Amino acid sequence: xxxxxxxxxxxxxxxxxxxxxxxxxxxxxxxxxxxxxxxxxxxxxxxxxxxxxxxxxxxxxxxxxxxxxxxxxxxxxxxxxxxxxxxxxxxxxxxxxxxxxxxxxxxxxxxxxxxxxxxxxxxxxxxxxxxxxxxxxxxxxxxxxxxxxxxxxxxxxxxxxxxxxxxxxxxxxxxxxxxxxxxxxxxxxxxxxxxxxxxxxxxxxxxxxxxxxxxxxxxxxxxxxxxxxxxxxxxxxxxxxxxxxxxxxxxxxxxxxxxxxxxxxxxxxxxxxxxxxxxxxxxxxxxxxxxxxxxxxxxxxxxxxxxxxxxxxxxxxxxxxxxx
Amino acid sequence: xxxxxxxxxxxxxxxxxxxxxxxxxxxxxxxxxxxxxxxxxxxxxxxxxxxxxxxxxxxxxxxxxxxxxxxxxxxxxxxxxxxxxxxxxxxxxxxxxxxxxxxxxxxxxxxxxxxxxxxxxxxxxxxxxxxxxxxxxxxxxxxxxxxxxxxxxxxxxxxxxxxxxxxxxxxxxxxxxxxxxxxxxxxxxxxxxxxxxxxxxxxxxxxxxxxxxxxxxxxxxxxxxxxxxxxxxxxxxxxxxxxxxxxxxxxxxxxxxxxxxxxxxxxxxxxxxxxxxxxxxxxxxxxxxxxxxxxxxxxxxxxxxxxxxxxxxxxxxxxxxxxxxxxxxxxxxxxxxxxxxxxxxxxxxxxxxxxxxxxxxxxxxxxxxxxxxxxxxxxxxxxxxxxxxxxxxxxxxxxxxxxxxxxxxxxxxxxxxxxxxxxxxxxxxxxxxxxxxxxxxxxxxxxxxxxxxxxxxxxxxxxxxxxxxxxxxxxxxxxxxxxxxxxxxxxxxxxxxxxxxxxxxxxxxxxxxxxxxxxxxxxxxxxxxxxxxxxxxxxxxxxxxxxxxxxxx
Amino acid sequence: xxxxxxxxxxxxxxxxxxxxxxxxxxxxxxxxxxxxxxxxxxxxxxxxxxxxxxxxxxxxxxxxxxxxxxxxxxxxxxxxxxxxxxxxxxxxxxxxxxxxxxxxxxxxxxxxxxxxxxxxxxxxxxxxxxxxxxxxxxxxxxxxxxxxxxxxxxxxxxxxxxxxxxxxxxxxxxxxxxxxxxxxxxxxxxxxxxxxxxxxxxxxxxxxxxxxxxxxxxxxxxxxxxxxxxxxxxxxxxxxxxxxxxxxxxxxxxxxxxxxxxxxxxxxxxxxxxxxxxxxxxxxxxxxxxxxxxxxxxxx
Lengths: 324, 553, 300
What we know:
The complex is a heterotrimer. Chain A is built from 14 helices and no strands. By secondary structure, chain A is mainly α. Chain A folds into two domains: 136 residues, no CATH class; 181 residues, Orthogonal Bundle (MetI-like fold). Chain A starts with a helix and ends in a 7-residue tail after the last helix. Among the domains of chain B are: 68 residues; 69 residues, no CATH class. Chain B has a six-stranded mixed sheet with strand order 6-7-8-3-9-10, with helices on both faces. In chain B, strands 16-17-18-13-19-20 form a six-stranded mixed sheet, sandwiched between helices. In chain B, a hairpin with a 5-residue loop joins strand 11 and strand 12. In chain B, helix 14 crosses helix 15. Chain B is globular and about 70 Å long. Chain B: Keywords: ATP-binding, Nucleotide-binding, Transport. Chain B: It comes from Aeromicrobium ginsengisoli.
């Protein structure tokens, strides 16, 4: 177990490092001229003077070879230093720290909603017996993933703020301002979760051990909750990382639509301002969240699914000799 | 209990009143009015303490009948006529809620495949406990009863097993757990749906013996669904033979076996290995040279577990064998004995850890790709499962012609001629050239696979359980074909099988494998007459239908 | 028993009822029939075809000028004359939507094209070659997957600059890893099937096995994903364009149209809601088509 944990942690760190490298390559090595992008930002709209160029080059180390630049950046990043934001003149780390709390709150609420909506829908879609309703519920998740997040947000504003006046349309104050953006973020991810769960439940309910359970005389509800739901949600756990990633992504749109403070809005503004250090900081942060979530899932999974931990189960030899 | 459904008035059933009565039952699949009937006008009853066997090949409707009796018809299936009475209650059109009250106390199911019939994420004891609790057993005695019923089902070390997960148990033990689950409700009737066809022969026999004993001891009735006429004849008080949804014959097993009334039963009896007409291996050619030699072959697999530790498994251990030209060597063993691995090593699909496999003096294992390719023209492989061994996108013509194309033999026209000739050899009409695998039956697919293997005119065929996926009567046809081809073309076979009855009829030499070692080998007849190793004797004893054969002899 | 007995060829099992039909075409015909019996599928296909047509030949659907302003007709609600209403400058929204398809569909096609080519290559090489090439490529894919697709796209847009093509490339890169994964999984699955082993052991070379057996049998799920990815790409492209990274103002894309209408959400909700609805319908249609293909494959 210790060995397993150590290997997974090492893998996670390696992936995070590689992700950092990818963002570095994309942001610093890909543009033909990062200096002018940065200079555009620093204010001057006119032709930059040689002096300005030299200053930027020195400040960002662009006169060093790219590998040396990479090394310096990596060492800094290791100390959680992603440099100075160009558009805001503040350190990237402090900007991230300032904007993180509202986004965490929003993402947390959105994930809870995702679980409730997606899980509930999947349960109903597979439990309901009446065929027309059943097939309607089976199709519903596809609607959730089909409509653009920004549009869903605007629709919710139109409905619940302007028409009904239940929730504020914009702003980041109080719990009530969380509801609409969180709902906006969770509808697409609920769709993803519901699709995965519905497929898992339908597959599980087709399996032979469900017939065994029915033959015992257990009720449908017992079978659905005790036998099917658990087995079907275990595989669904592995997409938790994807769900969190998608939720964070949706925060970019939702925070922009609802004019909220947060990492997402910061990302939109950073890209609009082509603020390379800030964009990198945000992308690496998101990758870090994804990596950590997946690490946690990987470490918890064996505790939940008894089949994974088996050292030399008969399964590992099964492909060699198919039982006749 | 009976609050939510309207049962027929509970009759004080006299002891000989049937537990299950099926009267003129028809079951259909598909949309109303246009349904495909899978069971038609079936009438059958099971009295208390009686063992009734329902025998038929795949598609005969035997499993559908069993599922109808349990109210577990798969989606799309409906009872379209007749009635089912279970323990005195009419359950023909009972909904799931109403049926639930009969499952457990009246009828219990022993399902088909123990490897998948238990919930993999729930401890064994809890799965039994669910069935125990259905009887309203008080909480504190549940655990005791679980252990007790596991013990009665023949699970060894029940206290420990109850705390384990299904994947930690062997197939036989899992089947016993399933029997325990069925028994836990104290049912009047057990329905066993091919309870042992996924298990090894020796395990199969022990499980069936145990079921027999349970039924005799408790006065429970048993409805045994099986494809194996031998099993049915050995075990049943009453035998029902089904074909294409209808009962073709029923009566006392001994009587049916001795003088079958229906032509289909006759065919089944003929085909049943160990029961029917005795097939003889092809005559042996006068010359005697060794085509293939296993020389001290061992194979180890290292597998990485989920925790990162490596474990080694020795699958073959110092196997030495000679295969003589024009003869059949049979490799027999239970699952995990290494027989398939031996075949794959001979084919060059796996490399041995040590030892050599010599084909006509050339070491297969150490050959490079090119010389192995040249060798492959001379020996070919026929896969176990004809349903997976043919590319679904290919036509029969392309499938059989593929080896010719790979070796660039002939042009398109001449290949088609060759393919037609090959189809003729395996007794398939030339009109099948354009068909795809999905349009063929299992037996026809295996014929195509054999034709493909013959395309390069090989000397040696490696046959991996060539008939185990097929119905009995089709099995017989394929075995006949193999014997014919051998005598016609002078082929050499290495035949891997778990089924001694199959082996007896087609092989000249026999080697019994256990845990990767050869425990016994010699001429087939000799091994059969004087088995020396305990496993060989156990395997022989496990061949179903022997009782009948002895009675008839 | 003699040899003559053994040579007795038994009648083969009766042929299945499909025997007399023209076998080669019957499968395709069956599939076609199954599709035609699904009105939902037909509607979805029709809608997608309309959207593509509107991108190729917008004048077929809206003959007007998408940039022509008509100050007296501003903020008109949807009517027969102006299907989607008019915007703050009196431009006909439906005409702008139809003309905007060109850019949006183009961007979608570029990104899916990129993902398909790159993803297929990585997936096939990785799955078929195995060994170190597989480990290397898959580690790379894992890393790309660790960065949420839209954020990776944001980084690429930051580096490449704004505009339709850059957005399309960014989205395409984001779609590639998923595509590579599915392709590899399919190739791996088919690679170990008995019939591939049978072909190999009857002497077929690796390229022949790949071309004739593995690719034809593994493209199904990959094709389904490609259809679904068209939907994903539409969403991603329009999101990026909504956030302001697409084509600059006088040009209109689906996303930027919604963004532009947003200011007037209170008074003229149709300016945001109708274009978004049209986009969502396109994605839903693609989803439906993909799912239908998937179901058909499961039956066969």
